[in-house]
Amino acid sequence: MIITKSTPSVLFFDSGMGGLSVVASVKERLPNLHCHYLFDHAGFPYGEKQEDFLIERVGELLEQAVKLLNIKLIVVACNTASTIVLPHLRHEIKVPIVGVVPAIKPAAVLSKRKIIGLLATPGTIHRQYTQDLIDKFASDCKVLRIGSTKLVELAENYLATGFVDDEEVLKTVKEWVELDKKLQPDVVVLGCTHFPLLKQSLKKALGEITLLDSGDAIGRRVANLIDDFKLESVLETYDVSSYAFYTGSIEAYEKIIRENSFKRYGFTCLQEFKKFVKD
Ligand code: DGL
Prior knowledge:
alpha/beta; binds D-glutamic acid; 10 strands; Rossmann fold; about 45% helix; 2 domains; six-stranded parallel beta sheet; four-stranded parallel beta sheet
């Protein structure tokens, strides 16, 4: 199997491997979806980057990808990017774009205590976009926020090695665990696509608290857009490979993530994006 650049596909984008959690949710609904994955390893982690940097960088990478591949739809499987780059992308790129943003709205509906936890990257918790979501959909709730890059790194490491450092996960959310029960959030929004990968460990740390991510909503949205824009060709079975493209160098752990992470999610080839652009 080789890649056919003309095969109609959906492109998933993230800074790292967290977007694979979104791929999994979307594929639960659309198992035949033909997709590629692009991750900006050279720019990782996004949660610590300036907004201007992200707008320019994500725009450039996705514009290049759309020129080279027959991309029918893009999923920006990254909250940190989606909460800042979507207007620019939609202006520059003329294929439908789905963004992933924190599930504040359903969390506000679900929370009985009207205390929500938002667990995301430092970038996402400080975004105006996030504040607007809170003001619009959760104005009756208290929203406690933790921004963590450590958790993003733990999730990357988990995908590569299968190991989760439960103690480090617990340390990240300790300030909520130590709160008096009635002051704790009863719903925690996983506002970073890396965090659903750590669900088991987060459940251990947080106990009874409900964890909410955007995966299922994104699956629904992608299915609706395929209908609305008549993009059914992305659901046909093609005898071509699904690629995971990366920026920068992943030398040290290429073999381990190829076998342990990408193959499991259906991406049979792992290739440097720059090399693909040149070829
Ligand atoms: N997976 C990304 C998100 O959903 C960000 C991880 C990073 O900091 O690069 O926000």
